[in-house]
Design brief:
It is built from 13 helices and 13 strands. By secondary structure, it is of the alpha/beta class. The protein has a single domain, classed as Spore Coat Polysaccharide Biosynthesis Protein SpsA, Chain A, CATH 3.90.550.10. A hairpin with a 2-residue loop joins strand 2 and strand 3. The chain binds uridine 5'-triphosphate (UTP). The site of uridine 5'-triphosphate (UTP) has 20 residues, from helix 6.
Length: 291
């Protein structure tokens, strides 16, 4: 049985051009899902999967992320003075959820380049990467689902779903063979393939479990699609050498880096939120009739 994985990286240094103009002023990872920023859901997911140390990769325009995980002394005082201790406790809980560390990716050179910054944080053990704009609502954290695959097959694991042809050319495509239930062996992958080069419609959506071997490969990975150092290109080298496992995960994924994903995640959580759920659902039902 593999050791518990206690470290996670959240790359959140991308420019977020698909969310312009708002991304100019608000990091896309700080866009709200009802009343909490996307990155808060990611940290919570990592904690629920057993992580204690979480490194968020940011850039010079993203200080708001760091502030969010700090204590809110003034807010807490005001809340406690007016008897709202539960709200104050919740603020404290967010700040104390895990040891959250921050590191700046000084140049925006791609997801692979961002992950490569985390070598000394990671050390010698396997770790998770949660892409900063992929929110997944699931019964079991996707990271835990990946750990099951890692324990069973002893190989790094990626969370996948089948996506449309329209999306596969924007994401990555995996060469897979069925292993068991929702698990597949992966022997090759390609980032942003032209449609005639896709291996399958399975694409990695936002969660991976990697071993530290990836860092030597990343250091030698040249810029790929879009002129960026792609994590997929480095994973491809290891997949061709010794294989990966893909897990067709249980859970619903929303791309917070895209306007549609942002809107849909808010609707999904808006109807579940204890303060908004009932009235928002009534509003939606009436509104849907006018469409
Ligand atoms: P994306 O490609 O979805 O993010 O990267 P982006 O580059 O911000 O998006 P657009 O196309 O401009 O809208 C996936 C994840 O990798 C992070 C992003 O923050 C996102 O969470 N990333 C990307 C980095 O941390 N550094 C980079 O150099 C690029």
């Amino acid at each position: 049985m593999a050791k518990k994985i206690t470290k996670a990286i959240i790359p959140a240094a991308g420019l977020g051009t698909r969310m312009l103009p708002i991304a100019r002023a608000v990091p896309k990872e700080m866009l709200p899902i009802v009343d909490r920023p996307a990155v808060s859901y990611l940290v919570e997911e990592a904690v629920n999967a057993g992580c204690e140390d979480i490194l968020i990769i940011t850039n010079r325009d993203k200080d708001a992320i760091e502030d969010y995980f700090d204590y809110s002394v003034e807010y807490e005082k005001k809340l406690r003075d007016s008897g709202k201790n539960d709200k104050a406790d919740e603020m404290r809980r967010i700040a104390d959820m895990a040891n959250v560390y921050f590191l700046r990716q000084k140049e925006t050179r791609g997801l692979g380049h961002a992950v490569a910054r985390a070598r000394s944080f990671v050390g010698d053990d396997p770790f998770y990467v949660l892409y900063g704009d992929d929110i997944i609502f699931s019964e079991t954290p996707v990271c835990t689902q990946l750990l099951e695959a890692y324990e069973k097959y002893g190989k790094p694991a990626v969370g996948v779903k089948e996506v449309s042809d329209e999306l596969i050319v924007k994401y990555c495509s995996l060469k897979t063979e069925h292993l068991d239930k929702n698990m597949y062996g992966v022997t090759d992958m390609i980032e942003k393939p032209p449609i005639e080069k896709k291996f399958s419609n399975f694409s990695i959506l936002g969660r991976v479990l990697l071993t530290p071997e990836i860092f030597d490969v990343l250091d030698m990975t040249p810029p790929g699609a879009g002129g960026e150092i792609q994590l997929t290109d480095a994973m491809r080298v290891l997949a061709q050498k010794s294989g990966f496992v893909a897990v067709d995960f249980e859970g619903e994924r929303f791309d917070m880096g895209a306007k549609l994903g942002f809107l849909m995640a808010n609707v999904k959580m808006g109807v579940k939120h204890p303060e908004t759920g009932r009235e928002f659902a009534e509003f939606l039902k009436k509104f849907a009739k006018t469409l």
